[in-house]
Amino acid sequence: MNALKFIIKYQIHDTLRSKWLIIYTLFFAAISYGLLSFTNESSKVILSLLNINMIIIPLASLVFGTIYLYNNSDYIILILSQPINRKTLYLGMYLGLSFPMALSFLIGTGLPVLLFIRNFKEAGPVLFNLFLGGVFETFIFVSISFLIATLNENKMKGLGLSIFLWMFFSALYDGLILITLQIFRDYPLEIPSLVFTILNPVDLSRLLVILKFDISALMGYTGAVFTQFLGGGVGFAVSILSLLLWSTLPLMFGLRSFSKKDF
Questions:
Q1: Which end of the chain is more exposed for a tag (fewer CB within 10 A), N or C?
Q2: Helix axes 201-213, 124-151, angle to 10 degrees
């Protein structure tokens, strides 16, 4: 436990010194402040932030996480020469990166919101879900990036796979679902649609906000079916549980691969 705390503390300190993290924070701050300055309608601001977050957070988490693990290969070899468990090192590096990135998102988006908090008097639950979804996305895609970097020795291959996964979850996935639903439109597709939604963490995070807005049509067919069959409360619980699974499963596979990796 002491070793884990030491690694997390060192990694957080190292990550906070990164210029990219400062740029990441300032980006969210600038976007949030700009949107809030143009309109007083909280719903429009939240939906705009939602769309931006669900694109930028997965991309930054995947790319930065993959590069981070590759660039720390010498540090990993040095630490492994000490009597430190591999799983402890992996978990410490993961948390040491995920926490600062999640905090950067919360600070960058939260500070402008606090300046205009009077515009969000009736949108507290929706705003909370927006932040919750962003934090989940950070932890999920950092864990995926670590898994990718652990499984691939080639840095360019790992980085290319990270970018492909971002494109797949953010853009290609919904298109493939629409094509599938169109091809099999003569069959009952409610249950497959629910499964399709759960299999995409980006859609799940977006769904957290849309359920509170009661405008699930913005999610398309899958979002409408999700609300119709599970309802608001149950749908929220299923979304949270699914996001928790998305956060833990890649991390578990990464821990297992890292433990067997030959350095």
A1: N
A2: 180
Q: What is the dihedral of CA 243, 64, 127, 99, to 10 degrees?
A: 80
**Would you say the pTM of this structure is higher than 0.85?**
yes
Structural domain of 24:
2-169+248-260
Domains: count for the chain: 1
Per-residue pLDDT tens over the stretch 15-54: 888 888 999 999 999 999 998 888 777 778 888 888 888 8
pLDDT digits (tens, 9 = 90+) for 211-229: 776 554 455 555 566 666 5
Residue 30 counted as domain residue = yes
Whether 224 is in a domain gets the answer no
